[in-house]
Structure formats: C-alpha cells, structure tokens
Amino acid sequence: MSLKRGVNDFLERVMPKGLYARSLIIIIAPVVLLQGVVAFVFMERHYELVTKRLATAVGRDIAALVELRGSSPSPEAEDRLERIAREKLSLQVEFLPLQPLPPARPKPFFNILDASLLKEISDEVERPIWVDTVGRSNLVEIRVQLDDAVMKVLAKRSQTYASNSHIFLIWMVAASAVLLAIAIVFLQKQIRPILALSEAAEAFGRGREGPPDFKVKGAREVRLAAESFIDMKRRIERAMEQRTTMLAGVSHDLRTILTRFRLQLAMLEDGPETEELLRDVEEMSRMLEAYMAFVRGDAGEPAAPTDIPTLLDELKRSAETHGAKASVETHGPSSAMVRPDAFRRCLQNLVANAARYARRIAITAVHDGRRLEVRIDDDGPGIPADKREEVFRPFLRLDEARGQDEKGGSSGLGLAITRDIARSHGGDVTLESSPLGGLRAVVRVPA
User: Fold this and answer.
1) Are the beta carbons of 142 and 129 closer than 8 angstroms?
2) Least buried of 274, 301, 323, 353, by fewest C-beta within 10 Å?
3) 280 lies in the same domain as 132
4) Which positions, given as ranges, span the membrane (predicted)?
C-alpha cells in the first residue's frame, strides 16, 4: 500500500497540473511507446535479417574470388578476376602488396548492422579481414589478407546491408507529427468548453457577470456540467432576489416602527427615562442596519474598476477623524476590479476596528496585476493568536483586549461582514501579528 502511495505521490509531482497537458501525455505516451517497440522490432529483426542475407551473399562472392586467386596467382589471373568482379558481381577488386591490415576504425553509435556485416563476411571468407563502413558514404571497403597479397574490395553500401533506415525513421516521425497535430486540434476543441465553464463559474463566484459568449457546448459530459451550472446559477440568483425582497420588506417595517418610537419619545417630556429609551432606540437602529448589511452582503452590486489609492485616502481621513494617526502606501497598478461599495465597507470595518483601539495605523496596498492585497497594521493591544479565527464568527464579542462590546455597542458582525465580502470577491481576510506591535489584518482578493 505504501509503495502504491509513493508511486501516486511521485506521479502527482512530475505530472503537469493542467488537463490539456495531461490529456496530451495520455495520447502521446502510448504512441511513442508503440513507435519505439515497432522501431526496435523492425530494426532488430527485419533489418538485421536483411543485412545478414546481403552480407552472406557478398561474403560468398569474396570467398569465391579468394579461391580463384589462390588457384591462379598470376597477374593475368588477377586482371581477369578484377574484370569478372566488376562486370558480374558489381564489386571493385584490387590486389595490393602484402602488408598488415589497418587497425579497426571507431564504429558508429548505432552499429548493430555493422557487427552483423562483419560477422557474416568473416564466416564466409575464413581469413583475416578488415571492414570500413564509415570512411566512404556510398561504398563499403573490405580488405582480405591473403598469403602473398591483400585483396581490396569496394562494394556498394546497398549490397552489404539495408541502408535506407532513414526512410523508416522519417515515416515514424511524420506519422507521429500527424497524430500529434490531430490530438492537439481535437483536445483544444474539447478543452475550450471546460475553460469557458471554469471562467463562468469563477466570475459568478466573484459576483461578476460571466463571459457574454458562454454557451452550452462540447462533449456530452461537459454539456451536462454546463447545464447543471446554469440551473444552479439561476436557483441561487432567484433565492438571492427573494431574500433581497424579503429583507427590504422587513427593513422597511422595522424602520417604520423605530421612527414611530422616535416620534413618540419626542412628544414626551425630557428626562432620564426618555434619554435612556432614546439611546435604546438608536442602538436598535444601528443593530438593525448591521444585521441587514450582514444578511444582504451587498451581493447585488456589480464589479467595476476602482481607484484603490483614492479609496485608501478616504479610509485614512476616516481613521484620523477618530483620533488615530494613519498612513497610506500603495504599490502596483492603481485600479482593481472589485465591487466598490462592498469593498469599501470591507476595509472600513477593519480600519474602524483598528482606530477604535490604536493610535497609529499603517495601510499598505500591493497590486501585482492579478491579486490585490491590502494590509492594515496598528499598534493596539491586538488579539490572541488562538482567537483570531473565532472573531470572524457572527455575533461573537471578545471580553478582553479588543473586546467588541466595550466601545460603541458593536453588534459583533463587523469582521463577519468583512470576511463575507472578501470571500464573495473570491478572496479572504486573515489576522496576523503586526510589525507595529498590534494586529495586522490582511485582505486578499483577485483583481
């Protein structure tokens, strides 16, 4: 089991991550393997067999010439043998003075056929021989050591072994290229609907309009997935529309009641009881607005290019009105594709929370063209590391350090709304320790 897991982990590391690349490998790997097996079998079996037969025939011709030369070693006999070899055997024969055979030359890297040629001629001639298949392009030189001379034989390369291997290799490469081209074209047509579906789902997840040319197309399984996504999108949009309508009605009714309370309190005489009731009504109004914002989530707002430096300057001025000293620093492109009001509310909650407990705030935005990261640092008391995730839970109020119910009667929804907005953009919010000594809030969203 551990071996199987190790193999799976290794394949997961070395395999490409994209479906397009993996599909190409699935198609190409068997083709390459098949071509390799065919090439090996063809070269090892067919070519070697053809070379063996050709080399045997040439070896027998040379052996016959050696026997005739041995029976009649006169110059006239040598001239006659050279003529016979040239006219009848297509061999160029020359008799040289007796001398040692040259040393063997380096063989080419792929010398299976050369080894077969040397073996077959040696078996037929049964004398010391020297074979050179490298020196000349179209001829093979063979030297046979006789008793009183050296017989030099030049044979055409096609007479000694099958020399048209390049045709087979070219055919293999051409066939592989055609198969690869067909596979690429086919896979592009199959992958394109999947990519379109992915873009549409990502845009919907970020609260943006999907591609205008998105259509249900592709293979049956892809079409089913696209149709299911469209049905899900319609159900979610219908549910959001119904929820928005319901919230609008509830908000209107509750605001009407609160307005009636204010009017009734205004008609009463001023006193401690009246002031206390008025504070309760105002607190109920703030809590109602916070609850409505949390449930609504500003999901109906479309994304638009937003000037981040201008937005951060507004947040800086807001923090300074609360008595905190704030600074802003931006890096990268100034415009980002976000929902302006929702993103402003997301950052405003974090800046207001920092201004409530800190004297110094540093706001930094980094935009690399693909993602926008906004860091809000403060020098306040911070939040314990083990509670930094808990504070994002709705209606949670901490009792220590940055307790949310200590100042301003918070509803405990500020950070929950912040994370909900960031995640509706396809990003997230995290809390860390700040270099200023307090808390760092980091908002990361695609841009």
Assistant:
1) yes
2) 323
3) no
4) 20-43, 167-187
Q: Are residues 258 and 320 in the same domain?
A: no
Task: Please give the chain's pLDDT, 447 residues, in tens.
Answer: 566 677 667 666 766 667 777 777 777 778 778 777 777 776 666 666 777 778 788 888 888 888 888 777 778 888 888 888 888 888 888 888 888 888 876 665 445 556 667 777 787 888 888 888 766 667 888 888 888 888 888 888 777 766 555 566 677 778 778 878 887 888 888 888 888 888 888 777 766 666 766 778 777 888 888 888 888 888 887 877 777 777 777 777 777 888 888 888 778 777 777 778 887 777 777 777 766 666 665 555 778 899 999 999 999 998 888 888 999 999 999 899 888 888 888 899 899 889 988 999 999 999 988 899 999 999 988 888 888 888 888 766 654 444 444 444 455 667 888 888 888 888 899 999 999 999 999 999 987
For residues 287 and 353, state if they share a domain: no
Q: Are strands 139-145 and 129-132 parallel, antiparallel or unpaired?
A: antiparallel
φ, ψ (nearest 5 deg) of residue 433: -75, 140
CB atoms within 10 A of CB 242: 10
Asked whether residue 406 falls in the same domain as residue 438, the answer is yes
CA angle 441, 444, 445 (to 5 degrees): 145
Distance CA 115, CA 110 (A): 10
Among residues 129, 144, 163, the one where a domain terminates is 163
